[in-house]
Design goal:
By secondary structure, the chain is mostly helical. It has a domain of 40 residues. The protein contains three helices and no strands. Helix 2 crosses helix 3. The chain is rod-shaped and about 80 Å long. The model has no long low-confidence stretch (mean pLDDT 84).
Length: 68
């Protein structure tokens, strides 16, 4: 049987982690596993496009036809 946590509860743990609390400390104090909290943190964190999370698309260069 899995435990369902409210979004407010998840958000509060994410905020505490973002303020510097380690995942292990949060898991020990509040109950969810470190892995669950890590997933919530990842879901709440927007992707950083500067680190290559979005692939650069190479577009073909326009070719010029030789004059006839």
């Amino acid at each position: 049987m899995s435990i369902r946590y409210s979004q407010d509860f998840k958000d509060s743990l994410v905020k505490l982690h973002q303020e510097g609390r380690p995942l292990k400390s949060l898991a020990e104090e509040f109950g969810p596993s470190k892995d669950s909290i890590a997933i919530w943190v990842k879901q709440a964190t927007p992707p950083n496009h500067d680190q290559g999370s979005v692939k650069d698309v190479k577009r073909p260069q326009a070719t010029r036809e030789a004059p006839r």
